[in-house]
Amino acid sequence: MSSKTKKHNETAVNNFYEKADILRVAGKYKEAVSNYLNAILIDRENAENYLGLAVCYKHLKQYSKAIKFLYMALELKDDSYEIFFELGICHLLAGSPCGAIKNLIRAIQINPDNPEAILQLAIAHELCEEYDLALMIYQKLIENSSGFIKAYEHKSTLLMKLNKYEEASKVLHSILKLNPDYYKAYAGIGICLDKLGKQSDAQRYYRKFLSEKPFSNQAEFIKNRLDKLKENKHFTRHLTLCR
Predict the structure, then answer these.
(1) Does residue 217 lie within any of the structural domains?
(2) Each residue of 125-143: pLDDT tens digit?
(3) Among 17, 36, 60, where does a domain finish?
(4) Alpha helix (H) ranges present in the chain?
């Protein structure tokens, strides 16, 4: 191949790659796929093109294709945090959390300071029903990244799933210390108190949640639960008066 042809090919690859990246960032994934593929047809040794292509397929929910091209990217660049992280995410999205774990662990080994990969690792263990391990990772993440609210949120959700409402309530209160406007925590605390039989306190947190987010997805459930608690309170009072 002449130097002139080589330079022409490099220019074409860069043009396709740059256009593909712009389209991907704009959310035009199908158009981006075509440009990444054109770049790969000219140069099959560029890991970034495979990575970009895989990310597009991920957003298009074609997870098997995304995983395939991520492994091809990995053959060219085996020390990339982003490739291992995306592999972990795609395995999770494809319904294979146990397959995600080894890739997320490798991503964390490459970049131990990124809390998102650690969070996804905990989620993968949770989906594999390794609850104690997931809780341990969530807690370590909270200790090492105290402002990372998503770790608190996932830990409290898992604790509630395990019927550990007292512990979940404490975690949710920790969220409110970090961000008093985090309205989901009010709903969560209300549910925990409700499950613990502390209806009066539960109603207080339910009302706080509704005052902040009266039209959220959870609002209808919270309103119905408040109405039910009020009915129970009136019924109990009526029984007391009748005695």
Answers:
(1) yes
(2) 999 999 999 999 999 999 9
(3) 60
(4) 3-25, 29-42, 47-59, 63-76, 81-93, 97-110, 115-127, 131-144, 149-161, 165-178, 183-195, 199-212, 219-242
